[in-house]
Design brief:
mainly alpha; Non-ribosomal Peptide Synthetase Peptidyl Carrier Protein, Chain A; 4 helices; globular
Length: 77
């Protein structure tokens, strides 16, 4: 469920088709810059009611990283 929502957010924010994304997709490959990533993080934080620490954001390189950070934040409550 987290994966699907994250994929949906990425597709919406970057105006790309969800089908073009998978766990191995990197932000560089899909044309996301630092501003795009920051907007994604804010959208995800709002949807899941979590906080992603700034140091984690700087290490995000793709879909799998963002999904992992979201899942960890949810588990930690």
């Amino acid at each position: 469920m987290v994966y699907e929502k994250v994929i949906s957010f990425i597709a919406d924010q970057l105006d790309i088709e969800e089908e073009t994304l998978n766990e191995e997709s990197t932000f560089e490959e899909i044309g996301a810059d630092e501003v795009d990533i920051a907007e994604l993080v804010l959208a995800v934080e709002g949807e899941f009611e979590i906080e992603i620490h700034e140091d984690e954001v700087t290490h995000l390189s793709g879909v799998s990283d963002l999904v992992s950070v979201v899942q960890t934040a949810i588990e930690l409550g």
